[in-house]
Write a structure and sequence with these properties.
The complex is a heterodimer of chains A (71) and B (200). By secondary structure, chain A is mostly helical. Chain A is 72% helix and 0% strand. In chain A, α2 packs across α3. The longest helix of chain A is centred in the last third of the chain and has 32 residues. Chain A is elongated, with a radius of gyration of 15 Å. In chain B, 46% of the residues lie in helices and 11% in strands. Chain B contains eight helices and six strands, in the order ββαααββββααααα. In chain B, the strands form three sheets. A two-stranded antiparallel sheet of chain B has the order 1-2. Chain B has a two-stranded antiparallel ribbon with strand order 3-4. In chain B, strands 5-6 form a two-stranded antiparallel ribbon. In chain B, α1 runs antiparallel to α7. The radius of gyration of chain B is 21 Å and the shape is elongated. The chains are: A mainly alpha (71), B mainly alpha (200). At the A-B interface, α2 and α3 of A face α3, α7 and α8 of B.
């Protein structure tokens, strides 16, 4: 389990997963902007959506890493 | 021109002006429809987010490296192009063209390529030559699809992905320009959200 995706610093910095950051930021902001008119609720909603996306990715990443360690 | 307004949560009135025109402007350039409606902050947000993703995609699909099957270099903006030839149908372009004018050079470049005319701007957004193309026409220096995959590698697919997502996000922006923010059902909406949205 020591090779977990988020425990290996070399893999973290060279990982393609960083390409997801601009996509997550833009998707969260645009999605939130379609639900509110004022900027403050947009930022809050976007932060929550981004948190959900990142959380989901972490859960899936950990599950996949665990599966790969098991097999 | 008709002026439309919509009532949104917390009783806020939004003047959508001519909603159809705003939607068209929003398609032409992300944020332009909202700018026309006077929703400047959202216009800036949409423009930065959507165009940022689109340009990032174009940058990922760019390279100064030499082609393998051609005499020229890879060039710029290769992740976005229009092609409807058998074996290379760019279905993603249907989504990418939702960004509007910034994606339209691809159509012009595809026309020039198909009519054996030299493509403009070194092949920016031009479709690649077929892999088995031995034609020594005006576009002989243009890369083949094989070149793009070989040299750009995963950046080609990532660039295409970012440009596609940008186009899809602009569909949401177009809807927002046409109909205003999507109303959240009162039962779902949290109390603090309602408070933060209410006019002071």
């Amino acid at each position: 389990m020591f090779n977990l995706l988020f425990a290996d610093s070399v893999r973290i910095w060279s990982n393609d997963v960083w390409y997801a950051l601009p996509a997550i930021a833009a998707i969260s902001l645009v999605y939130a902007a379609t639900r509110h008119e004022r900027m403050r609720p947009i930022w809050l909603h976007a932060a929550r959506v981004a948190g959900w996306i990142v959380g989901f990715m972490i859960v899936v990443g950990v599950a996949l890493e665990w599966l790969s360690w098991m097999t | 021109m008709t002026s439309e307004s919509t009532e949104k949560p917390a009783g806020e009135q939004i003047n959508l002006k001519d909603a159809g025109l705003a939607a068209f402007l929003a398609w032409m350039l992300p944020g332009l429809g909202h700018f026309y409606q006077g929703r400047r902050a959202k216009a800036a947000l949409y423009f930065v987010c959507i165009m940022g993703l689109f340009v990032f995609g174009l940058c990922l699909g760019s390279s100064n490296e030499q082609c393998i099957n051609s005499e020229g270099k890879i060039g710029y903006g290769r992740a976005v192009y229009f092609s409807w030839k058998k074996g290379d149908r760019t279905w993603a372009y249907i989504c990418q063209v939702c960004v509007g004018l910034p994606a339209l050079p691809a159509v012009i470049q595809a026309y020039r390529m198909n009519h054996n005319q030299k493509v403009w701007c070194g092949g920016f957004m031009a479709p690649p030559r077929p892999n088995n193309d031995n034609d020594k026409g005006p576009n002989k220096e243009q890369p083949t699809l094989h070149d793009l995959h070989r040299v750009l590698n995963r950046r080609f697919d990532l660039g295409r992905f970012f440009a596609t997502v940008a186009g899809l996000l602009n569909v949401l922006a177009i809807y927002d320009a046409y109909a205003g923010p999507v109303t959240i059902a009162p039962g779902v909406k949290k109390k603090e959200e309602a408070e933060s949205e209410s006019p002071k």
